[in-house]
Amino acid sequence: MPARPLVAAAVAAVVAASGTGAAVAVEHATTAGAARPAQHGAPSKAEIRRLFTTWDAALATGDPERVDALYADDAVLLPTLAPGIHDTSAERVGYFENFLANDPSGSIDEGVVRVLGKDVATHSGLYTFTFAATGDVVHARFTFVYERDHGRWEIVEHHSSLVPGGE
Predict the structure, then answer these.
(1) Residue 40: its pLDDT value, please?
(2) What confidence tier does 167 reach under pLDDT thresholds 50, 70, 90?
(3) Looking at the DSSP assignment, which residues form a beta bridge with residue 20?
(4) What is the distance between the alpha carbons of residues 139 and 156, in angstroms, rounded to a whole number?
(5) Which residues contact 50 (CB under 8 A, 6 or more apart)?
(6) What number of CA atoms fall less than 13 Å from residue 15's CA on the CB side?
(7) Percent of the chain at pLDDT above 90?
(8) Phi, psi (5° rounding) for residue 153?
(9) Which alpha helices (H) appear in the chain, and where do they start and end?
(10) Helix axis angle, 89-100 relative to 45-60, nearest 10°?
């Protein structure tokens, strides 16, 4: 597993640069438990951008456990529409049960990808959620921090916050 100090430094750099919160997403590039290949090249920015598409597709399933499976076991979720830190699977699943009840669909309005190493990347920006069940539209800021572990991308940090005046 890559060193967590690198991830902590990446999160600190993102927070310092943005001054606000954001969100995280991840794609399972290989099956969990598969042996890590000896070498991984640095991901492309396009590969990291596709992780949001994977996360949004998991939302579309309506299955909170499927969404949570994209997160590292010890991932931190600071969600858009609930208070508190969600740093256990049970807390994340509980949040997503409520969030998914409104049939959300997300789209990125503007984003910046930073590849911080061969196994760590961030994706920050602005996104919009449309809730089919209510018709509500929510504009938020996001930062996703991804770490590749055993060949699979996982969300290790997901911070999302409402855009001031953007509800």
Answers:
(1) 72
(2) low
(3) none
(4) 22
(5) 27
(6) 11
(7) 74
(8) -75, 135
(9) 4-18, 45-60, 64-68, 89-100
(10) 70
